[in-house]
Specification:
459 residues; mainly alpha; 17 helices
Amino acid sequence: MINVITELSKYVILTLMIVYTFHCFYMVWRQDEEEKRELLHQQLTMIFFIDFTAFLVIYLKSMDFRVILFYIEMMIFFAAIQILYRIIYQNASLLLLNNMCMLLSVGFIMLCRLSLPSATKQLLIVAAGSAVSLVIPVMIRKMKFLKDLTWAYAGIGIVLLAAVLVLASTSYGAKLSLMGIQPSEVIKITFVFFMASLLCTKVDFRKVVLATIVAVIHVGILVLSRDLGSSVIFFVTYLVLIYVATRNPSYLFLGLGGGCVGSVIAYHLFGHVRQRVSAWKDPMAVYQNEGYQIVQSLFAIGTGGWFGMGLCQGSPEKIPVVKNDFIFSAICEELGGIFAICLILVCTSFFLMIVTIALKIRNPFYKLIALGLGTEYAFQVFLTIGGATKFIPMTGVTLPLVSYGGSSVMCTILMLAIIQGLYILREDEDEQIETQRKETIERRGKRATPERKRNRQTP
């Protein structure tokens, strides 16, 4: 009976995920606010049934009562964050909030299936991060001086990265964390704020040089720490913001050329880089060593097929570091390739929403922040999924909101809170423009009334 429920559950979960993904894109084209609210409620219902079905299967397979307790705690958290956002921020983007809850749900499902203690720890970090994030939109709206802290952002980033380089111990071939915290995740935010603050006013060659020097220092320290994934994310974000601020394609091509040269140099200098490239080119040739992880990942993806093996039916634990770098492979194995494609589309919807917010914001400082954070999010998703599927060499970054990792999930939640603050700012700008338009019409009407009276009195 349990096997029947498990088999049916994967089709139920898949169907709900497909409908949810369709709603993410369908709502973009709809103008009726009442219909949008109804679709948002339907999305919440689908998240609830996906979680209920998945955790029922995990409990039936493990018969561990802690799974039920975790499920109750998780649902309390989701209910609290949804209610609080609706009370505190009536102009917040509920679709952005729903997508965050969906991605967190997928992560909690897979983590609970792989390691319940890890899932419990992740939930505590997510709850703490969400509590902090509730004040971020207010800070974005009220703290107008943020654009004046240009060199404070640069100094914080360089000092923290240098501390990691000097003091951190090596883990999986790279220096990543201090006292269990990965500073590079926090510095992703400060780096974007530095670039936006520097480039939000008139951009000349001097500012481009200053931005380049600071970016080179950030990326250089990360390369020396062998944190290759983060270094690539910082570099791509720098290129995007420089191009958007200057509208000069030559800077983009020069940056890409410099990045290619830097990659070749890093390949020859660091054995760690050569190992990852070797595993990417022919993982079976080095299966017993550096190729083992990627081969197991590909086996898991192939085993899952389109519809997956079903929760607790696969063997994702055979993939080293599956909770962190290769959770996408575990999703493919147990929930299926179609579910994984829908997950990618939800992440794409996330990115497109952030870009839309950036394009509609009139303040150049906030516009660059939105574009920078959106670029970091999208490229991190690309690196994680590309590495798991052997599309690109492994870079050792997590899938935002899904993978296990306290610093990563905490900072991603804070990034999304900043985006919510920018979305609310955009709504405020629209309301202000509409108010000014109405006032202008009223003033014109008042001026026109005496003129009409004089015209009537004139014989």
